[in-house]
Design a protein that fits this description.
Two copies of one chain form a homodimer.
Chain A: E1 27-33, E2 39-46, E3 52-55, H1 91-96, H2 102-111, H3 115-123, E4 127-128, E5 143-144, E6 150-155, H4 164-176, E7 181-184, H5 191-201, E8 206-208, H6 210-216, H7 227-240, E9 244-247, H8 269-281, H9 286-289, H10 291-301, E10 304-307, H11 322-340, E11 345-349, H12 358-368, E12 374-377, H13 389-403, E13 407-409, H14 422-443, H15 449-460, H16 464-470, H17 474-484, H18 505-518, H19 524-541
Parallel strand pairs in A: 6-7, 6-13, 7-8, 8-9, 9-10, 10-11, 11-12, 12-13
Antiparallel strand pairs in A: 1-2, 2-3, 4-5
Chain lengths: 551, 551
């Protein structure tokens, strides 16, 4: 999704957006303090009945009205000093040694779980905390199937017209709406500066695909890639603070022919680069051969591997095929090697998969890769709806999230067609927050349903402003409502536009409740008993009424 | 969704849209002939490689360039005369007697199945053919779990500014994009004329909720409803040609208290009307008491029951609760009574249901209602995304469709917020075509994947126009692409805007294929064997390369 073409446009038509700041409508930033005094952010939605709901917050200082923003300065390096005095260990190594790091404590508060539980999941490799020591700006977060399902958004630079503000704004915009991590897929000559600007301003972990930058150094000829060029690129990015890196080390020479008769061959850019390299040199790739060395580098920064699925299916026809699962086996081998090195690992997954083949992906991944967090791109549940692939893939994403995928990489409406603009990015993030939350509900995450319940109560009580503010996108919910009933008093009116004032099902339900209240029937059982009595009286006086159809 | 407020707007801002006619871009109407000479429509998508794909077509004569349209005249009454000389039987009765009706023959051709299979599914009650004998304009279609999953779109009149053209256009617009049936939820004084205009111009079955019109006759006071008023309304609508009717006969007096402590009480308008009636009169409703009489009326027109779920959950919290399943049991009883009368039946379902509770709905419905076709409203998989409920519900719809639901009632982005405009209707229909098709793929419908495969091949071969034309919405797919690469030559360019000309994964895959071809390796096995040989040579010369990480 690298923005090779420059016609990015903004909602209001301006060319270079400034940074979006200020709280999301109807809410404000708060901080909870942990036992050891860490300040953990949340977003507080105030309700008109005097109550409030605190929700998980990915937006960083940009939505904190008490913090000034200067993108040339960068945001506050929250974690600076956290690792001082701590041995040079990764989160995985610390967890294995029984140490609860500050990151784990922070995450425990964010997810409302115990620090010990966080530690144990990291120790088991079932969860990762992508926090490069050189990215102190990160607000620690966790990716694992026993935590809230996370969402990643991809961004990329515009080759021609890019400014620091513009690039940073893409990250700010996506995380404002709920992106838990951002992948920077920028290309071109200013790739280093762009990434630097994003990292110094990002409160969420940043992922990259280092092979893209390495390709820049060899004039985009895969055959010219070498271990040395790649290694230096990885070190450069580690030093900058990249938190996780996609590495397509599972594309083996012998797997390449398995793709030749696919409907859509190899669709992963990284995968096809490595396949081309293997074919050109007729040997296994330097990513595979030098994997141990790579582990050593990532370990020293605590950068997390995101083992790429270079042979993922690009169409329904190719889902769950031999090439895909062969590569997954190799990713399993590599997972165990990385863990031996103390490096955190997650596994990337498809792509395009019909619904009935989705669960098998998760089961195999868990089995082969020791339950390393699965991180999937969608998948799209059908190929036939370009322009709506945020929807086709939200269907697959909800399904695979429910089955145990820990992070979902978003897809925008422009997938397969062009470059997403600002509105597309927001639409993609919201669609994926829906998928992730649907999965959280299905998995029975203890607090997930709170927000549904609060919103539904507000809806039922005609507290329109509360309904908007509790929604994933208060601005759009309000705007849609106002198209039909724009007057402010309507926000508290006891009817909605669908049925109008005379004809409202919710009003009739209220009458039912009032009836129960009037007769002193204040519990389900009491109402039931009270009404059954009346019904029985009635039945006794004309019992046939109850069996009118038994001819 | 009755349009009480008149601010419906059109894409181009005009007040009263004329009827949309003309083929969908990149395709044209064709007809296949059945053995007995029935002409069955399909939409032929012509491809640039000389091939074509015929797809199921719901759009009627409006996309047939050889047919003139005059909404005051109505469309050709295709089925006029089909029932002449046939005993006054319903499709269910005919099927049971072993008779393959013309409707079944027509449907068999549409769905590419045998007429005998269609007959047997109807005979078993597992499928319904909603065709009122007074609606000869209907192109016969079938609803059942062993057929393509169908989509319904709701429309409703604008109380103030409505013209015949405007009302007909809503139906034409929704069926153009794939709605298999339309429910007319109009209210107000011109309800009869509006319905007449829709029926005389509709090639798809029309459903209604007669209680809405009955309410108009009693000044919207549920307590004043009577069997006589309701019965006369039903007969009026049967005479006009309504193909299926929602009847909330399962709302029993004793179930009402079960809703009093729900988060969102009763959210079905029909359900709350009947609950209010039961409370006011302290007896079972006339719908339940007079159900047999109602069966007699529907039988004589072959109108299909759509037994309404008046107590469906309106929130995640209320899903699968006692009230919902109690009503479903009653719907099961009523299903068997209707079938004894020879009347076709489908069952309406929720609503709002988290993913893990979806399948239970289908299993219970099938068990209690003798596998009568299930017809669900979404369900929404979460409550927290008003303005995106076409997505929250497409997730639930795909899941419930996969589990066996036969028809999905669409939800638009304006659900819970206001009245859908033209764009919302299209978005809702497309989102539901995605859900239905995803379910068809998951259920292994024999021909469902053809379209995915054709589109993916076109995508991989950079046949951009074919990719657009094969998609559910060619206009939007093309427009999104053209935002980035508007020049016409780009439509056949061997790269796409995501990666640009130098850096394209699909091009690299082509190189892989070329490599295989150059070495005469033309099957997966041959390529595999040929390359394995080379790999083995390589391994023999430096085997450690293959185990670089085994420290």
């Amino acid at each position: 999704m690298a923005d090779v073409y420059p016609n990015e446009s903004t909602t209001d038509g301006s060319a270079a957006p400034s940074i979006t700041t200020g709280a999301i409508r109807g809410s404000h930033k708060i901080h909870h303090s942990t036992e050891s005094g860490l300040r953990v952010p949340a977003r507080r939605i105030e309700l008109s009945n005097g109550e409030h709901l605190d929700v998980y917050d990915t937006s960083g200082p940009y939505t904190d009205d008490s913090v000034g923003i200067d993108v040339h300065q960068g945001i506050h390096p929250l974690r600076r000093g956290w690792t001082d005095g701590r041995e040079h260990r990764t989160q995985l190594e610390s967890a294995r040694q029984g140490v609860v790091t500050r990151e784990m404590e922070y995450i425990a508060a964010r997810e409302d779980l115990s620090p010990e539980f966080v530690r144990s999941e990291v120790a088991a490799g079932r969860a990762v905390i992508p926090v490069n020591r050189c990215h102190p700006e990160t607000e620690p977060m966790i990716i694992g199937k026993n935590f809230l399902v996370k969402v990643n958004a991809n961004i990329g630079n515009s080759a021609v017209t890019s400014s620091v503000e513009e690039e940073v704004e893409k990250m700010v915009w996506a995380s404002r709406w709920g992106a838990d991590t951002i992948m920077d897929l920028s290309t071109g000559s200013r790739i280093h500066e762009t990434r630097e600007a994003i990292l110094r301003n990002s409160p969420v972990p940043i992922g990259t695909v280092p092979i893209y930058q390495a390709m820049e150094k060899v004039d985009s000829d895969p055959a010219k890639l070498t271990w040395e060029i790649y290694r230096d690129t990885v070190i450069e990015q580690c030093e900058q603070g990249v938190d996780y890196m996609t590495v397509h080390a599972g594309v083996l020479l012998r797997y390449v022919p398995m793709t030749a008769q696919r409907v859509t061959g190899i669709v992963s850019r990284g995968g096809s680069i490595m396949a081309a390299w293997c074919l050109a040199h007729h040997r296994e790739s330097f990513l595979y051969e030098r994997f141990s060395e790579l582990c050593g580098i990532l370990r020293s920064y605590d950068v997390t591997f995101s083992l790429g699925d270079g042979l993922r299916p690009g169409s329904i026809a190719d889902a769950n095929d031999r090439a895909q699962f062969a590569e997954l086996e190799t990713l399993g081998e590599l997972t165990h090697i990385a863990r031996e090195h103390g490096v955190q690992v997650m596994i990337e997954g498809p792509g395009h998969v019909p619904m009935h083949k989705i669960e098998e992906n998760v089961r195999r991944e868990e089995e082969l890769c020791g339950e390393a967090p699965f991180y999937t791109l969608g998948p799209l549940a059908t190929d036939i709806a370009p322009a709506y692939d945020h929807i086709t893939s939200a269907i697959g994403a909800a399904e695979i999230g429910r089955a145990g995928t820990a992070m979902l990489c978003y897809v925008t409406p422009k997938e397969h067609l062009g470059l997403p603009n600002r509105d597309d990015v927001k639409t993609g993030v919201i669609a994926y927050k829906i998928a992730a939350h649907s999965a959280d509900l299905a998995k029975g995450h203890p607090r997930a349903q709170e927000r549904d319940d609060e919103l539904s109560k507000a809806r039922f009580e005609f507290r329109w402003n509360d309904q908007f503010n509790l929604s994933l996108d208060p601005d759009t919910a309000r705007a849609y409502h106002d198209e039909t009933l724009p007057a402010e008093p309507a926000k508290t009116a006891h009817f909605c536009s669908m049925c109008g004032p005379k004809f409202c099902s919710m009003k009739i339900t209220q009458d039912v409740r009032d009836y129960a209240a009037k007769h002193g029937l204040d519990s389900v059982e009491a109402i039931d008993a009270g009404m059954r009595e009346k019904s029985e009286e009635f039945a006794a006086s004309g019992g046939e009424v109850y069996l009118p159809m038994a001819e």
